[in-house]
Amino acid sequence: MYLLGPASEVTAKLATRCGEDINVEDTASVIMELESGAVGTVRAGYTHRPFAGYDDSDLCLSFEGQLGSIYWPTKGERGYRLRTGHRDYAGVSRRWVDLERTADASDHGYSFVFFRAFLEAVAHGVAPPATQRDALRVLEVIEAAQESSRAGKHVRVMGG
Predict the structure, then answer these.
(1) Could you tell me if 145 and 12 are in contact, meaning their C-beta atoms sit under 8 angstroms apart?
(2) Confidence band, pLDDT 50/70/90 cuts, at residue 147
(3) Which residue has the higher pLDDT, 93 or 66?
(4) Dihedral in degrees, nearest 10, Cα atoms 90, 96, 101, 107
């Protein structure tokens, strides 16, 4: 939500495939349409047995839109890949945005700025960049994904 805005609709397949005696899904593939019109995928699975050269074993987020794409593997990397031809990113066409580096909004290091703002908000008792409403919206997306998987259909996000 922070990078691209809220989801409006999801289609999902959730399953338990690890072979262990558990009562929770361990594999999820979710397609989300965002309010902006971008379409993205979330792939998560705890069934993978990583091997040499295998990365992104647990979670991967990828979003495509008219202005470009963002790919965030979340494991083994410290940032996300941004590809765009948007004029605000002139000369950038493709770059890795490192969350560990010093960045400011004018350098398009938005995720780093977000995480730093959150930590500073906690430390100083001020409003965080993400609120309880944002957390509720994430839960609504998860519930819509669960309903989509159960019903085998597209599901509108409740808050959307």
Answers:
(1) yes
(2) very high
(3) 66
(4) 10
3-state secondary structure at position 114: helix
Measuring CA to CA, how many Å separate 68 from each of 1, 8, 24, 78, 125? 16, 19, 35, 20, 36
pTM tops 0.70, yes or no? no
pLDDT of res. 107: 46
Q: What is the pLDDT of residue 73?
A: 67
For each of the domains in the chain, give its residue range(s) and CATH number, in order of start: 7-156 (3.30.360.10)
Neighbours of 156 (CB within 10 A): 15
Specify the length of the chain in residues.
Answer: 160
Grouping H, G, I as helix, E, B as strand and the rest as coil, residue 103 is coil
* Contact (CB, 8 A) for 24 and 45: no
Q: Is 100 exposed, middle or buried (0-12, 13-18, 19+ CB in 10 A)?
A: exposed
In whole angstroms, give the CA distance from residue 110 to residue 68.
Answer: 16
Tokens 């971008």 locate to 38
pLDDT of residue 112: 64
* 3 state SS of 143: helix
